[in-house]
Structure formats: C-alpha cells, structure tokens
Write a structure and sequence with these properties.
Layout lengths: L2 E5 L7 H12 L5 E3 L4 H4 L3 H4 L4 E3 L6 H6 L7 H6 L8 E6 L14 E6 L19 H23 L3 E4 L2 H11 L3 E3 L23 H20 L13 E5 L8 H11 L3 E4 L5 H7 L4 E5 L3 H9 L1 E6 L8 H8 L3 E5 L4 H4 L6 E4 L4 H11 L6 H8 L4 H19 L2
Parallel strand pairs: 1-2, 1-4, 2-3, 4-5, 5-6, 6-7, 8-9, 8-11, 9-10, 11-12, 12-13
Helix pairs in contact: 9-14, 12-15
Amino acid sequence: MKIALIHGFLKEYGGAERVLEVLHKIYPQAPIYTAFVDLKKLGPHAERIRKWDIRESKLGKTWFIKKLHSPLRFLAPLIWKSFNLDEYNLVISSSGWYICRGVITRPKTLHICYLHHPPRHLYGYQTSFDWQKHWLIRVYGNIVNHFLRQYDFKASQKVDYFIANSIETQKRITKFYRRESKVIYPPVDMKWDMRGGKWNRDILNSRTFEMRKEKISLQRHQDIKNSTSKKSHFPHLTSYFLCVSRLARAKNIDLAIKACNELKLPLKVVGKGREEEYLKSIAGSTVEFLDEVPDEKLGEIYAGAKALIFPAQDEEFGIVPVEAMAHGVSVIAFRSGGVKETVVEGKTGVFFDELTVESLIEAIKKLRNYEITKEDCINQAKKFSKERFEREIKDFVNQKSKLHYT
C-alpha cells in the first residue's frame, strides 16, 4: 500500500514528535505532510528530521504562518484541504491541537488517527497562553473557537479509526467526538547505556545491578534517618531534582521552582518556551536552567537526578515521567490526566493533589518515606517501550487494513 503520514507542524520536539519519529521508522517510505517546518525552533533536534521526506504546505512556507500559527489557527482547515492525498491507500495522522486529522482523503482511503489530545483551547483545558486574560483576544478567540469546534467535530467523523495515547485521551474522544478508540501508549526508548550515565536493560539481572540496588536501599534508609534534622529538610542530598518540559503555563514549572526555592533544593530545568523569562525571574540560587539538550546529554541528566518533578495539569499522557522511570528515577507528579496511568504511587513515585507550593513540598517530603528502587521504576517503564508501541501499531494497522480492503 502507498502510505502517507500527517503531522500538525514541526516546530518543537516533544512527545508527539517522538511518536512521529517511530511511525517514520515503521513506515520509512511514507512522506510526511505537515503545515510547516521551523528547523531553527527545533534546535538540537533538527538533525533528526533533516533527511525525511517532508512535504510542507504552501502557506507553511510563508513567514507569517511560522510566526503567527497560533492566532491564525483558523487557517488550519485551508492548509489541510490544500494537500492532494488521492494516491494513498492509507493515511496515518499524528494529531493534536492543529487538527491535521481534517485532511481530505478519497472514500476508499483508510484514515487512522493517532490522537495525542483534542485541542485544549476548544474544550476548556488549560493552555500554554492565558488568552482569556485579554479582552480583545478573548472576543477574537471565542469567535474563532466556535467555528473551529464545529470543524474539529466534522473532521473527527471522517476518520475511520482512532488510536488514543492514553485512557484519559480515550475518554475525551468519547466525550467530544462520540467515537470509539483503541489505546496504544506512546513509545519510550529503553536502550539506555549504563556506561554513558544511563541504564542498559541487560544490566538489570546482573550482579552489578543487585549490588547497586542494595547500596541504594541502605543509603535511602540512612537518608530517612538523617531527614529528622530540624536544620534542613534534606541535609543528605547530593543529587538534584529535575524538570523536563516546555516552559509553558500549563506545565506549572513555577511550582517546582518555588518549592525548591523554599526547601533550598538543587533543581535543574530542561526545556524552553514562552514562560522562560518569568521562570528565571523567580528562580533562586539553587535552580539551574539548561535550555534544550540532545538526547544523549538528556540521558545523563535523567540518570543523575534524585527525582523528576512533574506538575503539569490535565496532561493527556506525559512521556517525560516514563522517560525518567526508564532511567530508574522516581517521579513526583500532580495527580491529573494520563500520569495516573503510568506512575505507581509508593512504588515508582508520589502524587500531590493541589496545584500549590505547599502541596508539592509535602509530596517532596513524602518521597523520603518510600523504598523506591531503580529496578521498580525501570520495570514500570518497560510497559511503555518502543518495541511494544511498534508491535501494537503494526498489528492495529494490519488488522484494520484487512477489514477495510476485503
């Protein structure tokens, strides 16, 4: 079959782009249709896609779409309508808020949509920019969103089969689109190299790992004993806490910074975004910003962390907590969205229930009371491996293709 991959746009490298990368690996001959590409914004990740067969829309080649794609989101239907996909038997869309599942296909073409999330701005979820705060933008946004909601619903009815990236997203597909879906969790690479500061799956059953695990357990026992000191909450701490995220409002990175400021804990922040200037303005002396980093460096940063802090609200899946667990790192997460499906409280991490600094501080303190091991974290992350994703995607596509063309 002739296959095409569809993706909203390529401007940042997050969980959705990692899914696209694996889809491209499964179907390397399939061209990728996208609204626009901005290699400068992709930073160190630009090299990952430079050799792909990417087909950018005509509007996407203009500067104003690259710069103003969010306020000009009403042009999205025109962009997807402009592509001619008549030659393809199968279209797989990797879809998020830019509604690329709205591409027009022939009646006989099979369209499978891997949905990361329905557009958050259309259905009342927190977004990266507080557009409701400014009255002019609020009026403009409400008018545009009214028509985009109608378009979003109609586009979703044209999809033959939905794949949801989590049970949380599956519920939203049912609620907003009245459609059924299959849950296939996103892929996480488990092939970590211990010599580079990461972990290799072959190490897990070795004597080296067992000895290291015993040492970790003894150290954690001593940590709990030492933590009774009134002078400091964490007098024994030698490593750092970590945030890996786009620096956007919905990610609530400010909570992690304020909590670590108060507790005088070292915190490393990986990522960039529109909130960066504000976050740096409130950061204390123990907070370090690392910008975006390539994967080989990110693995070392993960492996050296005491715990990942993940305060995002209503995250549909959240690939970062699984990446942290794949490196044997525990997770402190806001109890919301898809992270409830990946983190096991008391075994691979802890949750906090209110988006307040006080609630997060209590969770950080609570983490000391659990015997969380690297082995448990890695074993949990294995449930979301890249190999499992590839197998499930291939099985689903093959099954639906046979049904569609017989």
